[in-house]
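Summarise this fold before class:
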Amino acid sequence: MMDKVATLLARARAETGLDDFGDDGFREGLDMLVGSALRQARFTARGQAMFEAQVVGLLSRRLEVEHWYARHPGIDDQQIVAPVIGLGLPRTGSTALSCLLAEDPAARSIRMWESDAPCPPPETATQRTDPRIARTGETLATMLQQAPGFAAMLPLAPEGPMECQNFMAYDFKSNIFTASAHIPAYADWLYHRADLVPTYRYVKRVLKLLQWRCPPYSWRLKNPAHMLFIDALDQVFPDARYWMTHRDVASVIPSMADLYNTLSTGLSDHVDRAYLGRLSEECWTLGVRRIIAFRDAGQDHRFYDIHFEPFQRAPIAVIEQLYQFLGEPFTDQARARMQAWRDSTPRDKHGRHHYDPGDYGLDPAALHSRLQFYTDRFSVGQAA
């Protein structure tokens, strides 16, 4: 395993011509990930090559981030102030909500092309013509061609907002790995023993780089997985405000298992659907338990709750209420841009996402029973 890690590190150095990875704390996650993948993932030859390319790419991006900081140490003087962060179970409308919030010109989000390649850091004058936008569009088109059902799951666009999963992955502690590979040892370590404080510090490091030459500075972030690591997130972003989306758990957890299946199928011929069902149920049950504990420990005032059905019926009205909670102006320009995005991106633009919970060993009644502590806490009803 150590030989494999050394090879991946060497490939990243060779691809970038750089050799400073910064603080070496990322090595623990990298070692855990590669070791689990070698023992458990059962990749095809193509899958193994794709996994290694992913790791090398993440290492290369980390090298580039450190290179920019070495040349311009003043970047670290940038401040990330009171970010608004979206939480909640995945598949609850949070991606559409984050896309709408990203339409506000007074706010800043992580755009897909920046998520793929944050260096060189964007500049205001060229942020709409940056060649990375076209490259990301080509990559996205290829991905959707290979997995056509993916378009019905998430509204994705090169200039649309992305979660900070890639930036967490620069520290090799991220759900992007557990979502696409059978690596239960890594998942167990990530969810129960890993220290995510350094990870979120690195996320902040990249956000500083992104805003350095390209304001605004009012960040709108979103990542359901933050629920799993909320205490670490709070240490790094103690002034964050949160919105949290809610939906019937029997619609959410099987849908996530099916998404994991879509991501895994291209990498392995031995996808264990029952494992994906267990992973989805256990991961997200743990996430909501941790977020409820955090909220009940005196942090509830920092949260604004959004239920799926009202948001689907009247998204702009819900967002207006969110802005009132935040104490921020909801301008006519922001409203018009959000409405234009909603009109051009209806919920079923690419069809509906269909799945059978039974394929993943999941039973809706059992899910309702296991997560009743959550549904009762937030008055989340069952899907009609």
In short: The radius of gyration is 20 Å. The first strand starts at residue 84 and ends at 88.
